[in-house]
Design brief:
Pfam families: DeoRC, HTH_DeoR. This protein is of the alpha/beta class and 258 residues long. The protein has helices spanning 3-15, 22-29, 33-45, 73-76, 81-92, 107-115, 129-138, 160-168, 195-203, 242-250, and strands spanning 20-21, 49-52, 55-58, 100-103, 123-126, 143-145, 149-151, 156-158, 171-176, 180-182, 186-189, 205-211, 223-226, 233-236, 254-257.
């Protein structure tokens, strides 16, 4: 049972009971209490459950119910906001003067731009409105905006001409986002329209950096776009499990924890 299945099962159990302890959930799911605590933490952060006097209680409404494969940049902005802020800050510290960087879609990747020193001589390649806004706020003038058809739910521009432009542009670092990372099924996203852009950016970068919060590990979304071995580094938060920490090190991928 993967994380998403466990989370769904926990919610189902709590919907039918007035509450359950960590121990009870551990027994019913046949997993360790530590695993259940991580899942409960995820559910609490998304305001789906609360813990009262040691009992886990369903909040009465699940904002993600029947919407697990939908993604909207505006609604995602405040989800795990502190983790995304810290991840963006750490990722920005990897940028060196004269770097040419690609910024992928997403709320976490946009945080990177906010933390790049204004006096850095850096060229930015981006394909989203939210990244463009951050670039404007910081006053960076050396950037390439990939144009095309606008997808408001992602704030993303997409076109064949845009893909050609990415393919002709060489970057020193590509900061790539994802919606799920699974040891067996690889790295996935929610929207198929993202795949060509992500792959073009990965193929044309000297260093590929996955920027993702720890809640996305063990999750699987519908659209595959890369494997872990395609990346040189991962930037995430300290909520990453020890199991994943060891797995990433075994693959000789640099790991940065914010």
């Amino acid at each position: 049972m993967d994380k998403q299945e466990r989370v769904n099962t926990i919610v189902s159990i709590l919907k039918n009971k007035s509450g359950a302890s960590i121990k009870e959930l551990s027994h019913q799911l046949d997993v360790t209490e530590m695993t259940v605590r991580r899942d409960i933490k995820y559910l609490k952060e998304n305001k789906i459950v609360q813990v009262v006097s040691g009992a886990v209680i369903y909040n009465g409404s699940d904002p993600n119910e029947n919407k697990q494969d939908e993604y909207d940049l505006t609604t995602q902005k405040n989800n795990r906001a502190s983790e995304k802020y810290n991840i963006g800050k750490l990722a920005a510290s990897l940028i060196e003067p004269n770097d040419i960087i690609f910024i992928d879609i997403g709320t976490t990747t946009a945080q990177i731009i906010e933390h790049i020193p204004s006096n850095h001589s850096v060229e930015i390649v981006c394909c989203t409105m939210n990244a463009l806004i951050e670039i404007h706020k910081k006053g960076f003038k050396d950037f390439i905006l990939i144009g095309g058809h606008y997808r408001p739910e992602l704030q993303m521009f997409e076109s064949r001409e845009g893909l050609d432009l990415i393919s002709r542009t060489r970057t020193t670092k590509a900061f790539i986002s994802a919606a799920g990372v699974n040891a067996k099924l690889g790295i996935t996203c929610t929207n198929s329209c993202e795949v060509d852009t992500k792959n073009a950016a990965i193929n044309c970068a000297l260093e590929k950096i996955l920027v993702i919060d720890s809640s996305k590990f063990d999750m699987v979304k519908s659209t595959y776009f890369a494997s872990l071995n395609d990346f040189d580094a991962i930037v995430t938060d300290r909520g990453l499990s020890e199991e994943w920490n060891e797995k990433i090190k075994q693959l000789n991928i640099s790991l940065y924890l914010a």
